[in-house]
# Entry
Amino acid sequence: MSFDDGATLAERMRAHAGDSGHLYGELMRAMADDWDAGGPVRDICRGWETAPARTVVQLRLLAGLFRIVLTERAPDLVPYYPCLGGTAPPDQAWPAVREVLGRHVDELHTALDVAPQTNEVGRSTALLVGVFEAVRRSGLTKVRLLEPGASAGLNLLVDRFRFEGEGWAFGPVDSPLVMRDCFAGTVEPSAFTVVERRGCDLAPVDPNRAEGALRLRSFVWPFHLERHDRLVHALALARHNPATVDRAGASAWLASQLARQPDEDVLTIVWHSITQMYWPGEESAAVDATLAAAMRRMPLGRVAMEYAAGAAAARPLVSLGGLAPDGSPDPDPVTLGSVGDHGVPLTVG
# Structure
């Protein structure tokens, strides 16, 4: 997949779709043809022709369309959305989709302002393995969990999820969200208790408001049924266990949070996933400097699920920085494993 800033929107759509036969592959190729032909896609995307490739205009448009479907204003499209029970062939969807696009040009143009946010709870597998290792190294079982780029804060509820692996389990047995068969390799659980949880985001999503839940659902591809199932259960948990997510940038927020020294028996975990790539260089440097300074004052582990620099096509890596094997400060991260974009499966080691 290539997102070339020098390409036209149509070329980016085709590159993203490739030869995929799923619904979004079919629609992105058709949207590209419609853009070239000056159809409703061209009208919807006016003003976005030179937007950077990382804005993924095509995904913003597809999510806006999905929100129309989810709010029951496009019944003719429901048969093409598997998460809504649809089983119709994806390659037959475009005529009906084009008609809906034509009826909602202004709404979908506005929808392009909404950046992709899924708050994928499958990524909690990476957080869990990182916390296990940090607890083992530090010997501390009380955890203060901080997450820059937290979106709706769903992964801050990691201790409310149930994880079941080969020969081990973690989390409440009655949790509505159960993650099974998500790990490859040896996982060594370490008991811990989250005593504080908080996140920040430039555009926080409130999962307990209808519009927030709708936004999260709309960015999950409609044929990824397991992801939709996980999100439904995570939203149910959030209704009873809301996490606080502040509207703030990562470095300033972390500096504020880490200025407060926790109790001596509390381990601070700073966790982030697929967000560092969106930070400007100066923001990333400020985050690094803030964490390095805090590591000298308190037990702090940095758990990251991010792409390695210069390796955007590879699987994201899960790393732990801040704690050496003996629990002493160590800013150099160690790789704990690799993971899929959506957090599963996670290969340990």
Summary: The longest strand covers residues 329-339. The chain has a mean pLDDT of 94. The chain is about 35% helix and 20% strand.
